[in-house]
Structures are given as C-alpha cells and as structure tokens.
Amino acid sequence: MRGVNGTKEVSFIPMQLTREADYAIRTLVELASRPQGEIVPLRRIASRQLVPLAYLKKIVRRLTAAGAVSTLRGRGGGIQLEPSAATLTLYRVISIIEGRLALNRCLVRRGACPLERTCPAHPVWRHVQDVLIRELEAVTLADLVASRRKRRLRQSGPRRPAPPARPQGAGRGPAGGDVGAVRG
User: Fold this and answer.
1) Rounded CA separation 93/103 (Å)
2) Which end of the chain is more exposed for a tag (fewer CB within 10 A), N or C?
C-alpha cells in the first residue's frame, strides 16, 4: 500500500488501554488528589477530566462494585474515594474495568493455544506481559498524584521573588521624576 507521497504506508494496530480504563484511571487520580472523604460531583469530574457524563456514570458503577469508590445520591451528592483506594495499583484499576490483562490470546490461560510449546514467539509474549503487569502493579494512585504535583511544580517554574517595595518618594527628584532620568 502506497502513501500520499509514494512511500510505503505502514498500518498498525495499537496496543492500548480502552477509553473506559483511561477514564477510570483519570477519575480515580482526580479523587485521590483531593482530601480524604471529599465528595465530588460527577459533573465536576466529567468536566475536569473531559469524560462524557453518561460514560462516567457507567465507569463509576464498576468502580463502586469493586469497592474503589462510594457514591452519595441527591443534593450535594457525588463520589468519593474509599480510604484504601489510594493504594490501588494501575494494574488493579485496569483489571476492574477490563478484566485480566492478556497481551495476546495465547496468554489468556495456559494451554489455550495448541502451539504454546512450539511457538517461538510465545515465551516473548509471556515475558513482555509479565514485565508489563509488574510495572503496572508497581504504580499506585498515590504515586500518580505525587507525580502530577511534581510535574505541575516543574511547569510553573521557579517563582521570582517580588521586587522589594520602595518607600514612598524614594528615588524621586525634586520634580517628582526618577533621579538620573534624562529629560529632553
């Protein structure tokens, strides 16, 4: 297949999280960055995290069923992070939403693929999946909140101290102009 400029076009199938898992992680990080027990309206989370409200409601039902969040209905209602949820790992959140992670269909369960013992790629997929799971298990919501705070501090850069205030009339000449100002 040729691209617009005549070069060979490469197609790919991305290995990526579903939107639902991405939205769940963003929602939980938003909650974990707030004081423990704070109830946050779903509309606020949807707006801040750019998640469609109807989709967020579906995600919250799954997070509630898994014990990661609790909900409060009615006026002043919303969701809050359960106390132990700040220690949830990325792997656990993804598992709540997606189910068990499998990089390839041959890794869903041992013996699922008849070529498992002879396939030269199978050990590679198994190793990559094991490394991915280990990395996702090593990162908690609290880690992500801390990382976000550090990033925001770096982006804001060092703050310059305000110049010292000059006393009223200091540096002013007899005509009220700055001392040393050139007049033409």
Assistant:
1) 17
2) C
Give the whole-angstrom CA distance, residue 17 versus residue 91: 11
d(CA 94, CA 112): 22
Contacts of 52 (CB under 8 A, 6+ apart): 46
pLDDT score recorded for residue 183: 44
Tokens of 80: 């809050």
| Cβ atoms within 10 Å, residue 96 | 19
| pLDDT band (50, 70, 90) for residue 25 | very high
pTM of the model: 0.72
Cα separation, 25 vs 30, whole angstroms: 9
